[in-house]
Each structure stands twice: as structure tokens, then as C-alpha cells.
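Quick one, probably user error.
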């Protein structure tokens, strides 16, 4: 089934000059870039996107980090785009992410883990509304 998903190249990856290589991997598996924008994440967008983590020990640091510098916001579509992107990204902690995945190849730490991708089609609808209106 054709799906849309929300993907975000996080501040550390933008700062390290990894945009091109990450977008290249998305294109290489045949997914389509529908929208792409370099901009800051507002405090409101961060709170809405990470609402499920509110109250956890890492929440404040996560919001501070995701709002710390420009990100690349992407709407990506394609066959099974949500799980395909999650597979391309690899495990949340780069230390557990397989070589060949974006986090496995570029991630430095659990907080600086390069990329965000919606975890379900329902999350994708919600997150695309948060970031693209
Ligand atoms: P996901 O990004 O793979 O969906 P989530 O569990 O939804 O992973 O966590 C959202 C983000 O919060 C992660 O990408 C990571 O940057 C950060 N994070 C998750 N767990 C921890 C933790 O235990 N310590 C610090 N940061 C964390
Ligand atoms: Mg998640």
C-alpha cells in the first residue's frame, strides 16, 4: 500500500553535512520526496511530536536538542513507506543499529541519532500535520 511518512534529519546530521547522503539513501530505495524544508523545530512542534515521551528522564534534553539547530523536514511517500523508512533508519540506539542503516553508519549516540521517522501510518498523519500544517 502507498503510504506517506514524516522524516526529519536531526540537527547533528545537518551540522555534520550529512543531508545529501541521507536523502540519497531514501531516493536509492525508490521512495519519493514529496516535501523537503530546512528550518527550525519550534518548541510547540517538539512538544507535540514527542508528547509520548513527556515525563521521561530524557524528555527535556530531547526537546532542547531537536530545537537546537536547523533540521530537514521531509514528507516521503511510496510503497510501505513507513516500515521501509524505519528499516532504512535502523535501531533507535546507533550502537544497536546494523551496519548499512542510516543510524548504524552515521549515528554517534542515542540522543544524536541522526534521523526521525514516523512509527506507524497514524503517527505519520499526526506528525505531517504538526510539521507541515
Ligand atoms: P525512535 O526515534 O526510534 O522512534 P523513540 O523511542 O520514539 O525512538 O524515541 C524518540 C527519540 O528520543 C529517539 O530517537 C532518541 O533520540 C531519544 N531517546 C529515546 N530513548 C532515549 C533515552 O533513553 N535516552 C536519551 N534519548 C532517548
Ligand atoms: Mg518514535
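Nope, works fine. Designed sequence:
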Amino acid at each position: 500500500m502507498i503510504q506517506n511518512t514524516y522524516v526529519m534529519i536531526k540537527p547533528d546530521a545537518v551540522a555534520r553535512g550529512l543531508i545529501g547522503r541521507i536523502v540519497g539513501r531514501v531516493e536509492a530505495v525508490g521512495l519519493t520526496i514529496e516535501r523537503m524544508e530546512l528550518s527550525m523545530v519550534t518548541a510547540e512542534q517538539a512538544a507535540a511530536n514527542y508528547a509520548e515521551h513527556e515525563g521521561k528522564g530524557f524528555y527535556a534534553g530531547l526537546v532542547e536538542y531537536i530545537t537546537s539547530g536547523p533540521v530537514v523536514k521531509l514528507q516521503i511517500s511510496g510503497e510501505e513507506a513507513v516500515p521501509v523508512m524505519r528499516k532504512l533508519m535502523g535501531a533507535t540506539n546507533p550502537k544497536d543499529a546494523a551496519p548499512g542503516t542510516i543510524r548504524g553508519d552515521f549515528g554517534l549516540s542515542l540522543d544524536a541519532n541522526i534521523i526521525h521517522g514516523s512509527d506507524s501510518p497514524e503517527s505519520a498523519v499526526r506528525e505531517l500535520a504538526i510539521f507541515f500544517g
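The mean pLDDT is 98.
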